[in-house]
Write a structure and sequence with these properties.
This protein has about 375 residues and is of the alpha/beta class. Helix content is about 40%, strand content about 15%. The longest helix is centred in the middle third of the chain and has 19 residues, at about 145-160.
Length: about 375
């Protein structure tokens, strides 16, 4: 498959931001007029409003059922300028059977976002998890052409449904595994088995052809750590981005998930050097899924919340050493609904708001370390 026209790899910061500032966000921005950036305290404007004063975007991942919590919905409206469907746009949610699509969850979120002047971003079109049972069976039986058709049908239908509300997408999520036995580091997935490594550039080309104006992102985790896994992941991702440049793959940005684990040392200059190389190739850098997991630190979790903010500040400083981070999203807004509770039911300090929806230590760290 080839693109209909040459693809320009580099995009300006202005164009990148404008691509996200669609009509629904104008309502939110109008409400931000006169608000100063860098304000603190319980009555200060939300992170979304303060970020907008600096031409930046703050948002959070959310699930549609959480909107039934009126207090949480009000906090979300106050704090976020962008929403990310945490699960509602994954394959198992929107494509539960061959040829059948279900966008009810997404539409509830989109309705809330539109009513409150929020932008949205999409997550995700291709991933090794959250796939319906039928997809694995279909790809095992499918020829290469049939497998490509399945991917094309899904991408075209999802992008048609979510336009023009969503203008930025995590197209492929977590394609590399530093522990892979493969020399090339590709993660073993149903798509890799069906199509080989070419499934990744194929997904980007399909998304670009379906909607040439979208910002297309590669999203992955664990890129900031100094351990062997972090080092290997950076090598794999850099090699991938270089190939995308060489092969004219329509990819605009790298998404850093940023699920921070303070028990793992950060890579310092090696990480900032990695970011410099990424930016030097013309790719934007986004923070797409930030949260903080204190569960692996010794001692009571509550006692580690404040000391762990230094770790977050160091991370934010590394991110911004080579350029501005214009988009920062947390994977959830409140500890009340973080995904981390599935594994650590008593998790604290994971997100900008605590379980009672009060602004917590991470809220202040993001305000000071990113917006201050």
């Amino acid at each position: 498959m080839t693109l209909a026209a040459p693809f320009a790899k580099k995009i300006s910061r202005r164009i990148f931001l404008q691509s996200l500032m669609q009509a629904p966000l104008a309502l939110f921005l109008a409400g931000c007029a006169g608000i100063g950036g860098g304000e603190s305290g319980p009555r200060a404007p939300g992170l979304g409003a303060q970020a907008r004063r600096q031409n930046r975007i703050y948002g959070a991942a959310v699930q549609s059922w959480q909107l039934k919590d009126a207090q949480f919905a009000a906090a979300l409206k106050r704090e976020a300028a962008m929403l990310v469907p945490e699960n509602e746009l994954k394959w198992d949610a929107v494509h539960p059977a061959p040829g059948r699509f279900d966008f009810r969850g997404y539409r509830r979120l989109a309705g809330f976002a539109h009513a409150n002047g929020m932008a949205m971003r999409g997550h995700c079109l291709v991933w090794h998890r959250s796939n319906p049972v039928w997809l694995k069976a279909a790809l095992v039986r499918a020829s290469r052409g049939e497998a490509e058709k399945i991917m094309e049908q899904h991408i075209r239908r999802v992008l048609h449904e979510t336009a023009p509300m969503i203008r930025q997408w995590d197209v492929v999520n977590e394609a590399f595994d530093p522990q892979s036995e493969r020399a090339d580091g590709w993660r073993e997935t149903l798509w890799l088995r069906a199509l080989g490594p070419g499934y990744v550039p194929l997904a980007y080309r399909l998304a670009h052809e379906a909607d040439p104006d979208l910002i297309l992102v590669y999203n992955d985790y664990g890129l900031a750590y100094s351990d062997r896994g972090g080092h290997r992941k950076r090598q794999l991702v850099l090699r991938f981005l270089e190939r995308c440049m060489r092969d004219n793959v329509p990819l605009h940005a790298l998404g850093l998930q940023s699920h921070l684990d303070p028990s793992r040392p950060l890579a310092g200059d090696e990480f900032t050097g990695f970011l410099e190389q990424v930016r030097g190739m013309g790719y934007a850098v986004l923070v797409t899924e930030l949260d903080l997991n204190l569960a692996r630190l010794p001692g009571p979790m509550a006692g580690n919340i404040t000391p762990a903010q230094h770790y977050v500040r160091v991370y934010l400083d590394m991110l911004q050493k080579t350029g501005a981070i214009d988009t920062l999203l947390t994977w959830g807004l409140s500890d009340r609904y973080t995904w981390l509770r599935e594994y650590w039911p008593h998790i604290e300090g994971a997100l900008p708001l605590d379980r009672n929806l009060n602004r917590a230590a991470l809220w202040e760290t993001l305000r000071a370390g990113w917006l201050g």
